[in-house]
Write a structure and sequence with these properties.
- The structure is a single chain.
- By secondary structure, the chain is mainly α.
- 70% of the residues lie in helices and 0% in strands.
- The protein has helices at residues 11-27, 36-48, 54-61, 72-84, 86-113, 115-124, 129-135, 141-158, 165-181, 187-197, 203-224, 229-238, 249-254, 261-273, 276-290, 302-305, 309-328, 337-359.
- Helix 8 (141-158) runs antiparallel to helix 9.
- The longest helix is centred in the first third of the chain and has 28 residues, at 86-113.
- The radius of gyration is 21 Å and the shape is globular.
- It starts with 10 loop residues before the first helix and ends in a 7-residue tail after the last helix.
Length: 366
């Protein structure tokens, strides 16, 4: 397995730096709560606080009641918004989710390719323009993004070690909570199905995970009086029919610019550098995150495409370490060293991502 750049810095210091950069990016890229989407999530928090009835909430939501199927962040916000205000409650939660999501990206990448690649991926993750635009505004997206690398890590790298059914039930509950954060975490079900077909997961344990996850979803659907079919129906109405990946494949490919072009190029290099076992797992992640996007009626945009990030962001870290190693091996450039090239590349891409994010706050112009 490709490891590269061993001992770049003390791990504890690296984690502190990763957290500091995530907080810095989150705190400096907060968007105001200024549209109906935001108001629906405010309404959900008020519903959990007993300040709004379900009927009032549905009336507020209008034609986008599928937002009510994402109750996790509003539920948590309801616990302390009376003390700090509604908007700040969501902002603080998103900062926490951003930090946790960054650490889970670190853990997932480390399992793929070692800690230097993990450090690189975790440094760059919170600077990606799509994260700066969608994740740290007062919305619910970051809570969904947070669970994705954690679920991927547990399924790909830890689940095979488990012998107790309790751990599979716990994974199911975590999956259920992740789906209540954002429906895009359904990729984990497909990833589990792949393991089942690959005979790396028994039918008994597969059912234990699914039933545990379903129990939480069924309870919330019972409270809300909604099912997940409403998401498809409302998106079909909003977009006047199917406008998804199959109809707009070129737009789908262009929307990957939300990752930033240097990150995509590094991901390609990382894919060429990962070992055979890692390649299998990357393929599994790509397929499990891509398949749910195919029937989605929504026009492909950066937020839709970004749901594939658990497969791509680790490759960014691997590619960056590989590039630093390659540059350091050149006679003319070797005096800088691997560590020096790693730092130079990280700073350069961080600067580029932040510059593009400032331009892309009005979405990405193609």
């Amino acid at each position: 397995m490709f490891r590269g750049c061993k001992g770049v810095m003390n791990r504890r210091l690296a984690i502190v730096l990763i957290i500091a950069l995530a907080v810095l990016h989150g705190a400096t890229h907060v968007r105001p709560y200024d549209d109906i989407e935001s108001e629906v999530y405010y309404g959900l928090a008020k519903f959990f606080s007993g300040e709004m009835s379900l009927d009032q909430l549905k009336e507020l939501a209008g034609g986008i009641v599928h937002f009510l199927l994402r109750p996790l962040t509003p539920f948590l916000a309801a616990a302390f918004y009376p003390f700090v205000g509604m908007e700040l409650a969501f902002v603080l939660l998103n900062l926490i989710f951003l930090v946790l999501g960054t650490l889970f990206v670190y853990k997932l990448t480390e399992a793929f390719a070692g800690w230097a690649a993990a450090f690189s991926a975790a440094v760059l993750f919170p600077s990606l323009p799509v994260i700066l635009y969608y994740a740290v505004g007062s919305r619910v997206d970051m809570s969904g993004f947070m669970f994705a690398p954690l679920l991927a890590y547990l399924i790909l790298f830890r689940m095979g070690e488990w012998r107790s059914i309790i751990k599979y039930v716990a994974l199911g509950l975590l999956l259920g909570i992740g789906l209540l954060a954002r429906e895009s975490n359904v990729f984990a079900v497909l990833l589990l199905l792949t393991f089942l077909l690959w005979k790396k997961l028994t039918p008994k344990n597969f059912l234990a995970i699914l039933l545990s996850a379903a129990a939480l979803l069924i309870m919330w659907m019972g409270v809300a009086g909604l099912t997940y079919t409403i998401t498809f129906k409302e998106l079909m109405i909003t977009h006047g029919g199917y406008e998804g990946l199959l109809k707009n494949p070129v737009l789908f490919l262009k929307s990957f610019a939300g990752f930033s072009m240097p990150a995509l190029l590094l991901a390609i290099l990382g894919f060429l550098s990962v070992d055979s076992d890692g390649t299998k797992k990357v393929y599994m992640l790509i397929l499990s995150t891509l398949i749910p996007l195919i029937p989605l009626p929504q026009v492909p945009d950066v937020r839709v495409t970004f749901t594939m990030f658990p497969a791509l962001v680790p490759l960014v870290g691997i590619g960056l370490v590989r590039l630093a190693s390659s540059l350091a091996s050149k006679p003319v450039l070797s005096f800088i060293g691997e560590r020096g090239w790693l730092v130079i590349l990280l700073i350069t891409i961080l600067a580029y991502n932040n510059y593009m994010a400032l331009q892309w706050f009005r979405l990405i112009p193609f």
